Amino acid sequence: QASSKIRNFSIIAHIDHGKSTLADRLIEHTGTLSARELKEQVLDSMDLERERGITIKLQAVRLKYKAADGEIYELNLIDTPGHVDFSYEVSRSLAACEGALLVVDAAQGIEAQTLANVYLALENNLEIIPVINKIDLPSAEPDRVKKEIEEIIGLDASDAILASAKSGQGVEEILEAIVNRVPPPQGDDSAPLKALIFDSKFDSYRGAIPYIRLFDGKVSKGTSIKMMSTGKIFEVIETGVFTPEMTPVQELKAGNVGYIAGSIKNVGDTRVGDTVTDARNSAPMPLPGYRKAVSMVFCGLYPVETSEYDRLKDALEKLQLNDASLMYENETSAALGFGFRCGFLGLLHMEIIQERLEREFGLNIITTAPSVVYKVNKADGEVIYIDNPALMPSAGEIASIEEPVVRATVMVPSEYVGAIMELNQEKRGTFVNMEYITETRVSLHYELPLSEIVYDYFDQLKSRTKGFASLDYALKGYKESDLIKLDIMLSGEIVDALSFIVHKDKAYPRGRKLVEKLRKLIPRQMFEVPIQAAIGTRVIARETIQAMRKDVLAKCYGGDISRKRKLLEKQKEGKKRMKQVGSVEIPQDAFMAVLKMD
Ligand code: GDP
Ligand code: MG
């Protein structure tokens, strides 16, 4: 039977409330790693994560803790990503646990993602231990936050732990609470193997390695395992635990958290949420909740230099090895040449991949504006899904277009309610309802087109509420809408990579603004370049880029040679991110211009 000395738990929190800092403290306090090792090993996992202060990838670590009762416990901390883009991953890692620490910033109180995460934890029947963090801050108001926890979430907060992940206050109490309040795993060692994949990693020697939580049964070297979603079978060559390095152990059994290696070549075969069973003695039913990652946002990625196409392809292949939710396929653009259409879980996921391509692989890429997936009901009865605006059929072939809508929750101090309503109005939102969660804070529920969230929603939300609003959203479904395709023409030619889908009411102002913006962004060429925005054959806006004066360099003749060199270098630098489209050079900014216009 599963060991009574095991506790599997997660930490859930709104971003910046101190989850990572607290995790580090727990690791340090249990002597799992020294402070120095901690810095080197845990935090260095991903530069990007560090810089942006977000948690991207799940990780697990086993803590050995000698409790007040004198017994030694194995505490498995399963980390969850802290962003809405990854809510499915969050839900699967929570499903691997029996309990969760709910960390709430003592000065900020409950935010939209605190709530979203709590709901996921409750759905998974977890024991929730409220931790009020940052009580060292002068602005900390633990009593107010306790009240919020009780009133908004409905949890008893009388025994909430007051902590400071910064100073270490409350850490011992947290560890005791994990031991005493989180139930030990239940499960049957002798039943057929049933293990949940909550993450996976690619290792160049051992292949794709699923991170698993065993619910029933055992697994060890030589076990023939079967992935229940695909039926694929692999032989296990190693089982191990996270200390936090991968450390081999003889066997994993019910209740354990660890990894298995088995010459699995492709991370696509180790899907988060899938159930691993024994091929010779299979569980009759997989664990509930599995679903395939769905891409919500798509964009085109093209090498600036055509010769870098193969390198870009290699890089995407490598990134996909570690990230089964990254989708890509070949795409050809009349304007940009050969590249890839890529699908992402959300905007943040997209930005992370773009940055990694540039930073880790040193690639120069052109990214087209992100698009959602439109459902097009054609006049002939066919239904198609379009993730690239350039491929939208002509108006005559379309009966109707549907777009993805989300159910969004915005939490703000009440003085910003007006600002949020205005923003959501502009974003074609439908008001659902509004609740006062305390006297001064409000939760607003809206239905919003996903495409409007992609278009500059976060920045607007933050700037209009001085950073006080928090957002959470989940896909609700498709809804018919009056959408049309807007094309951009340079020198009379449509640039397919600049086409976008827009609501009819916004087509004119957006087209107008975009051509104005493009006029400023596209550098002068040797000849005059007209820029036009068109719906079908109807031009709705036009601007002209004047021809370049030929004396840019002439000015420098006879003058300072270093000044001339600087000018040339500057031009070269600028060129890097330029794409030659027909006879016109277009900078990267132009492709993203459509995103920031309102
Ligand atoms: P996460 O996004 O939830 O992982 O939050 P982090 O652990 O990255 O913390 C966000 C910020 O809050 C960082 O600048 C931390 O140094 C700071 N922080 C975390 N815990 C505390 C605390 O107990 N007291 C204070 N004053 N700052 C804290
Ligand atoms: Mg973090």
End-to-end distance, in Å? 60 Å
Mean of the pLDDT scores?
87
Helix coverage percent: 25-40%
Shape: globular
Tell me the total number of β-strands: 33
Taking the sheet with the most strands, its summary is:
8 strands, antiparallel
Low-confidence stretches: 53-58
Name every ligand kind in the structure: guanosine-5'-diphosphate, magnesium ion
Count the helices. How many? Answer: 15
Which band does the percent of strand residues land in?
25-35%
Structural class: alpha+beta
Strand order of the largest sheet: 11-10-16-7-8-15-12-13
Radius of gyration: 27 Å
Keywords: Cell membrane, GTP-binding, Hydrolase, Membrane, Nucleotide-binding, Protein biosynthesis
InterPro entries: EF-4, EFG_III/V, EFG_V-like, EFTu-like_2, G_TR_CS, LepA_C_sf, LepA_CTD, LepA_IV
GO molecular function: GTP binding; GTPase activity; ribosome binding; translation elongation factor activity
Main location: membrane
Descriptive account of the structure:
This protein has 598 residues and is an alpha+beta fold. The protein is built from 15 helices and 33 strands. 26% of the residues lie in helices and 34% in strands. The protein is globular and about 80 Å long. The relative contact order is 0.08. The site of guanosine-5'-diphosphate has 18 residues, from helix 1. Magnesium ion is lined by residues 19-20, 55, 82.
List keywords for this structure.
single chain; 598 residues; alpha+beta; 6-stranded mixed β-sheet; 33 strands; globular; binds guanosine-5'-diphosphate; membrane
Secondary-structure map:
Blueprint: E1 6-13, H1 19-29, H2 35-41, H3 47-52, E2 60-66, E3 72-78, H4 87-95, E4 99-105, H5 112-123, E5 127-133, H6 142-153, E6 161-162, H7 171-181, E7 194-203, E8 207-216, E9 218-220, E10 224-227, E11 233-235, E12 238-242, E13 246-249, E14 251-253, E15 257-261, E16 275-278, E17 297-303, H8 309-322, E18 327-333, E19 337-344, H9 347-359, E20 365-367, E21 374-378, E22 383-386, E23 398-413, H10 417-426, E24 430-436, E25 441-449, H11 450-454, H12 457-464, E26 470-481, E27 483-490, E28 493-494, E29 500-503, H13 504-521, E30 529-535, E31 538-545, H14 561-576, E32 578-581, E33 584-587, H15 588-592
